[in-house]
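step 4 of 6: structure.
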Amino acid sequence: MTLHFSPTSPYVRKVMILLRETGQLDSVTLAPAMGTPVDPGTMPLGVNPLGKIPALERPDGCTLYDSRVITRYLATLAKDGPDVYPDGPALWEVLTLEATADGILDAAILMRYETALREPAQQSTAWIEGQWAKIARALDALESRWMAHLSGPLCMGQIAVGCALGYLDFRHGARNWRDGRPALAAWFQGFAARPSMQATEPPAA
Ligand code: 99T
């Protein structure tokens, strides 16, 4: 399989961590891609019309995107490691936690594109702060409601939260997301020490 990839993409990182945690790293070849909404660059437009990564080309089926589809698929192939999408009622918690983390990422990337891709005069402070408000509310929900789940067996929700918090450090460090969220900060300190997280750290910005 070919994974269209960038080392700075937190969505790709979710996939890479799952591959490592389930012993499937050798099943993919990485194809580097770069691009943005205003310049698709080397994005794999031929296999993902949305021009986004990750995208997973398979020899025996359609190319998969987005990251949640890819991780769900790869979890079905896993022979080793944890069941990151458990059966039963816990599945709905895992999927909601994953959606919360992906929502943090979606807002954080919209903020990033607004400041990195638009001229200062075109940028909307209200829009940027509106995106940050979504992130702040989601982080507060993690701190107040999700700590027991985050401390449980490894699941895709935890992996997604780890990637989201890592991305906030990578692109939005000045926002100090740890302030007022000691439990989440402590959890991330431990989670970030996992070998799969260490091996997928984004390169210095
Ligand atoms: O939007 C574009 O045109 C290009 N952007 C991407 O491909 C980003 C790379 S993160 N990926 C996504 O937006 C995927 C989102 C999708 N819902 C999923 O796969 O889950 C780049 C971040 C950075 O470099 O700062």
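step 5 of 6: annotate
 - Helices lie at 10-21, 67-77, 90-117, 125-145, 147-150, 156-172, 182-191, 195-198.
 - The chain has two domains: 2-77, 90-199.
step 6 of 6: archive
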